UniProtKB/TrEMBL annotation:
The lineage of its organism: Bacteria, Bacillati, Bacillota, Limnochordia, Limnochordales. This is Blue (type 1) copper domain-containing protein. The keyword Plastid does not apply. Residues 1-26 form the signal peptide. The keyword Lipid metabolism does not apply. It comes from the Bacteria. Keywords: Copper, Metal-binding, Signal. GO terms for molecular function: copper ion binding; electron transfer activity. Residues 73-149 form the Blue (type 1) copper domain.
Length: 151
């Protein structure tokens, strides 16, 4: 290998190293500028959101918020309900009547929720929504409720 070729090779390597150095630095800077708005967004979001009501799933009942009469929760349209599994076993939320559980008509169904997990649904249409937990047929043990959404 001639000296010229070695010099050319070294220059190429130096240029490549320089390019890598700059691009790595550039990537770090880009990450920093991206992180700032992302970190700020979740703090601002909850204030702008529609009202949220928490409904607890516990073995083996649907626990509605304090002040609710019977198993019937009345909410204004647009309310988001956060269903939280606070029991030690799996539960889910299926919008159907007990006689239509497993295969009948339903508007929504949550995934099966492990202990501690939660799932949200926004009621954007007025109406009467019977709900139940069909995981292990828990509705037969009383895991049912009715959500009335007013205009
Ligand atoms: Cu259940």
């Amino acid at each position: 290998m001639s000296i010229r070729r070695v010099t050319a090779l070294l220059m190429t390597l130096a240029l490549a190293a320089g390019w890598w150095g700059t691009s790595a630095l550039g990537a770090e800077e880009a990450q920093e500028t991206q992180e700032a708005p992302e970190a700020a967004a979740p703090q601002a979001a909850p204030e702008a959101q529609a009202p949220e009501v928490m409904v607890v799933l516990r073995d083996f009942q649907v626990v509605l918020p304090k002040g609710t009469v019977g198993q019937r929760l009345v909410l204004p349209v647009g309310t988001t309900v956060r269903f939280v599994n606070e029991g030690p076993s799996y539960h889910n939320v299926r919008q159907s009547r007990p006689e239509e559980a497993y295969g009948g008509h339903y508007l929504f169904q949550s995934p099966d929720l492990a202990p501690g997990e939660s799932w949200r649904y926004t009621f954007d249409q007025p109406g009467t929504y019977p709900i139940l937990c069909d995981f292990g047929a828990h509705y037969l043990l009383g895991m049912t409720a009715e959500i009335e959404v007013t205009p």
